[in-house]
Design brief:
Order of helices and strands: EEEEEEE
Mean pLDDT: 95
CATH architecture: Sandwich
Structural class: mainly beta
Strand content: 35-45%
CATH class: Mainly Beta
Low-confidence stretches: none
Number of strands: 7
Distance between the termini: 67 Å
Largest sheet: 4 strands, mixed
Number of helices: 0
CATH topology: Immunoglobulin-like
Strand order of the largest sheet: 2-7-5-4
Shape: elongated
Number of domains: 1
Radius of gyration: 17 Å
Length: 94
Amino acid sequence: MQTFDVAPAALTVTAQNLSMAYGAPPPTLLSNIRGFVVGDSTSVVTGASSLTSAATSTSPVGAYTITAAKGTLAAANYNFIFISGVMDVFSGRR
């Protein structure tokens, strides 16, 4: 009998780019998951990614990294790849 080792497929977790006005409360950080093998969907994933940003309501106008990390994510037969996003803090005028 022949046996095979199958490597886990990769799921890419991408932090969504967001923006906020200076002085406003930071929006909820969100992510997307892509790369499911045929027939699989988000139903094979449990837990949630960890998303963090240094941007606060008093952060100066500019761009801040939104870092995506594993958090409590788990999925049989998958590994995770993480891609950061950007929080754009802008002045109250646009």
